[in-house]
Amino acid sequence: MTSHDDSGLLPEVIVYEGEFIGDDEPQSALGPEPSAAGRRAARRIAHAAATAARFTVARTLPGLRNAWALTVHWAALRYMTGDEIRRRIVKKQFDHFTERRDDAVTARNTTLKQMSKLVDKAAEDGLSGPEKNRLRDLGTEADRRRNGLAVLNAMPFAPDQPTAEQISRWRGTRGAVRFTCVVVPALGALVTVTVTAPVSALITGPALLGGGWWLSRHPIPLTTRPVPAELLIPELDAPADYQLDEPRSTADGQDTSAEQRPADSADPTTAEQVPGSLADARTSEQAAAVLAEAVRAEGRDLAEVAKAVEEPWGWSFYLRFATGTPDELNKDDIYKALITRLRLRRNGLLIEGDPDAGDSAFVRALLRDPFAPDVVGPLPYRPPLSMSIVDAADFGVAMDGTPLVFSVAGLMLLMVADSGGGKSGVMLALAEAVTACRDAVAFNLDPVGTGVGALGEAITLSACMDDELIQDVLDFLLALCSARARQRARYGWGNKWRVSEEHPAIVVFTDEWPQLSDEAKAKLVRALLLGRKEAVWFEAGSQFGTRDYLGQAIGPKLSARLLGACRRVDVTELLGGGAIAEGYRADLLQAATHTQVNDAGQIYAQGLPGMPNRPIRYQVREVTDAQAAQLGAERAAAGLPDLTHTLTEAGLWQQYQNLLTRCRADSAPPPEPPAILLTLREAFRAEQDPDALTVAQLAEHLIADDADRWSRWDDRADRLAMIGRRLRKALTDAGVELSSTRLRHLSGEPTGYLLADVKAALQAFS
Length: 766
Prior knowledge:
Layout: E1 3-4, E2 13-14, H1 36-75, H2 82-124, H3 129-154, H4 164-196, H5 201-217, E3 248-249, E4 255-256, H6 268-271, H7 284-297, E5 302-311, E6 314-321, H8 332-342, E7 349-353, E8 360-366, H9 373-376, E9 393-398, E10 403-406, E11 413-416, H10 423-434, E12 440-446, E13 461-464, H11 467-491, E14 505-510, H12 518-530, E15 536-542, H13 547-550, E16 560-563, H14 568-575, H15 579-582, E17 602-606, E18 618-620, H16 625-638, H17 644-650, H18 653-666, H19 675-686, E19 692-694, H20 695-705, H21 707-710, H22 719-733, E20 741-742, E21 751-754, H23 755-763
Parallel strand pairs: 11-15, 11-16, 12-13, 12-14, 14-15
Antiparallel strand pairs: 1-2, 3-4, 5-6, 6-8, 7-8, 9-10, 9-18, 16-17, 17-18, 19-21, 20-21
Helix pairs in contact: 1-5, 2-3, 2-4, 11-12, 11-18, 19-20, 19-23
């Protein structure tokens, strides 16, 4: 490189020497040329980024549009029907009308209180002149206010019904307020925070994308809601001649009326009117729409009614929720409101949370009896000695058609139900299956009744209405548990008794647990704790399930619990505090009355082997007394399992024989009253049950009953004396303690018998 100066006036010229490069050989002024592999990697990254962006936009943009449409739908009050807005406008008039009457009542009461104070003062100290004038003025004012209140009460509420333009103006005004005061400030705050603190975009961006992604997959329908319950009072109803064209909401949230929509382009499923109740639904779509409206009207965030199936008894649904929990539907206020909206009977709604999906629930709406006779079916015939106690027996059916099948082996069971809830019937059904077994026997204990005694001689041992005998039976069973524990160890049988025909299980049916004495309760609880391993199993029944009735908090610890119609506290005591919310609504079952079966024999169950722990209702198949008597006689004739071997090994055979003798003597039928005593009672009935009858009056009935015996003295003067003497002898020979008496209130004071004495003599034979 060279430089030279041609002139002193011109600037120095600098010449740079170098090599010119063509366009076909580019050179980077910032560094060396990148490699071909680098260019390919850059293109791949750019392509992946573009693909991800397109994928994200495709998956989130519809959701963001749906979110904006939902915002507009809310802000513009498009979720309110025209009738709801009309009712809100009329409600303001009604509130004003009510306030006028309330103000009049308050003013009248205030005046009366002031008068009362002056009257009290007048009674105590007297009134001055001004006070007397004040009292007179208050009396006049009270009359005026009373008359004014009477006029107000007589005035009917006659509101001015709004026009369609007023309804539209009401919606537009409040929509503008919502946009101005809520939507615009919220968007402005979001933009301001993002501009002033760009790092906040790291939070808001993913949140918006996530929300858009979710809404793209779960779009929220933009529909109108049902009119809220508080606006459904009769005073707000529209007159018969009032007409209001209801706008309908399209998918994008735009309101269109039926007149503006072409008939040939209407979707039949969306244009179909939603019925007013489930009973009016004719398709699964209609039923799903009715339920969805009812659930959303109660403020629940329902995502969808995924399934609706018509059942023989009504409808079954599967619901998914966007937020919240399905258990909320079992809250008292929501449950009762749903019953009203769906027009069901009081306990006609069953809600069961899906154990495999926390956001979902099964809902069953009962329009008819789910346990019709053809669904429950007849009692299956079980021949004598045809089963093993470990076999599963069919006891009934669930409302979804699932059979109620389980084995009684190893069960320590508590059945809780009110009087009339079917408790005794369920116990009898269990005993019927046990008495058909070749390796199990049934014991029957009942402090106040006959328990499962309808099975007669098929029950091996029965101790009823005798606390001392019941306690002795429990002592025997406790001794047997201890003996069998020693036998198990000697035989090497492990941790449970091996049931066989030589070593049968003993199933003890104990009804009316709360009626046991405190000593018997303590022994029963101890037997429940010891008996399971030794094949001494208890099936107990009680009207209540709480500790104060059972003696100890043993109920929740038992392996199986059945609940018929009972108290709410019994449900939570036995199944846990969340049982009501889960759907165990035994508190809604109705016990039977003398003339109505109602829900007797229907149960909820937990802990039954082979059956799921679900809040579903079961119907236990009824065993009538006639069927029980027939089966009991048949099984007794075929022979019952023999306890001789197992009790002899345990060293308890003689103790058992003594108990058996006492139980049989206790259960023997009472002797029949003698015929002569029955004849006297019939004589009193024939005479309309007077307080007393003379021997002369009784003689007529005795002769009519047996003329050969009592008419032998008709020709004798001492006829009545002979009949009276023979009557006393006949009563004495029959073992009847009944004496004659002088009827001094009658003329001549004849001999006779008192009705009270005859009844007492009959009572001695019962």
